[in-house]
């Protein structure tokens, strides 16, 4: 077995254990393998090991790696997990199957227009800034209900869930619980939360999507690409 296969097996087992401990079906949790900064060959190792769902945080990087892999593995599902500029919305709609980082009115309007134009409707998550950090993207908790309503009713976007990236120096469980509560209150079935350091906690608190990079691919070094 390759190292990639071993790492994937371990992460999947952690997810299954956490799900079972919480009385959840392990199949209700989707592992999004975050491949940013790692090249197409590393992605291919995980594809060979059976992984099909991947996350990238930059449109351009995804465009440089994934078209060939998507042609080869037609069931590959690609998620955008990083900030999206409105001038990249068209490319994002063309490239991604899921957009997890809808975080402002203007982006919602632009995505709606580009989806209409392309006849392609990637599922969307709304990113919530649960820690209310000034430097971080996302809708503030107090504005979530109104923004969900606007995305659904005014823009007719296919909103399926909420996503968050908790502050690095805080207990993530509090943020995960808050996000799950906001999703439930808005009738949203999907919750994207949990990264390499805390995905079992996120699963116990209801994550339907965990975004795991380092635990699957190893360290990204110092070349940026961080959240
Ligand atoms: C990079 C990134 C991840 C994965 O982080 P790891 O700690 O390497 O698992 C998850 N979510 C987002 C939004 C990211 O940018």
Assembly form of the protein:
single chain
- In spatial order, strands of the major sheet run 7-6-5-4-3-2-1-8
The share of residues in helices is: 40-55%
Q: How many DSSP E strands?
A: 8
What best-fitting shape do the alpha-carbon axes yield? globular
Number of helices: 9
Proportion of residues in β-strands: 15-25%
Task: Give a list of the ligands.
Answer: pyridoxal-5'-phosphate
- The low-pLDDT segments are none
The main sheet comes to: 8 strands, parallel
* Secondary structure category: alpha/beta
Gyration radius, in Å: 17 Å
- Report the average pLDDT across residues: 96
Structural notes for this entry:
The chain contains 9 helices and 8 strands. The protein has 227 residues and is α/β, with parallel strands linked by helices. 43% of the residues lie in helices and 16% in strands. Helix 4 crosses helix 5. It is globular. The longest helix is centred in the first third of the chain and has 19 residues. An 8-stranded parallel sheet has the order 7-6-5-4-3-2-1-8. The chain binds pyridoxal-5'-phosphate. The site of pyridoxal-5'-phosphate has 15 residues, from strand 8 and helix 9.
Give a brief description.
The protein is of the alpha/beta class and 227 residues long. The protein is built from nine helices and eight strands.
């Amino acid at each position: 077995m390759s190292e990639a296969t071993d790492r994937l097996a371990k992460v999947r087992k952690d997810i299954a254990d956490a799900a079972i401990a919480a009385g959840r079906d392990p199949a209700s949790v989707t592992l999004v393998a975050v491949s940013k900064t790692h090249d197409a060959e590393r992605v291919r190792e995980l594809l060979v090991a059976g992984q099909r769902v991947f996350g990238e945080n930059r449109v351009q990087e995804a465009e440089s790696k994934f078209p060939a892999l998507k042609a080869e593995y037609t069931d590959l599902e690609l998620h955008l997990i990083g900030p999206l500029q409105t001038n990249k919305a068209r490319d994002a709609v063309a490239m991604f199957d899921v957009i997890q980082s809808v975080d402002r009115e203007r982006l919602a309007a632009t995505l709606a227009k580009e989806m209409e134009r392309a006849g392609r409707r990637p599922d969307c998550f709304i990113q919530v800034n649960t820690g209310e950090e000034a430097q971080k993207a996302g809708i503030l908790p107090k504005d979530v209900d109104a923004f969900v309503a606007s995305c659904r009713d005014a823009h007719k976007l296919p909103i399926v869930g909420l996503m968050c990236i908790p502050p690095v120096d805080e207990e993530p469980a509090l943020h995960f619980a808050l996000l799950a509560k906001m999703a439930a209150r808005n009738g949203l079935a999907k919750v994207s939360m949990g990264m390499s350091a805390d995905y079992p906690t996120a699963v116990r608190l209801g994550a339907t999507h965990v975004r795991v990079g380092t635990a699957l691919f190893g360290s990204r070094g110092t070349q940026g690409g961080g959240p």
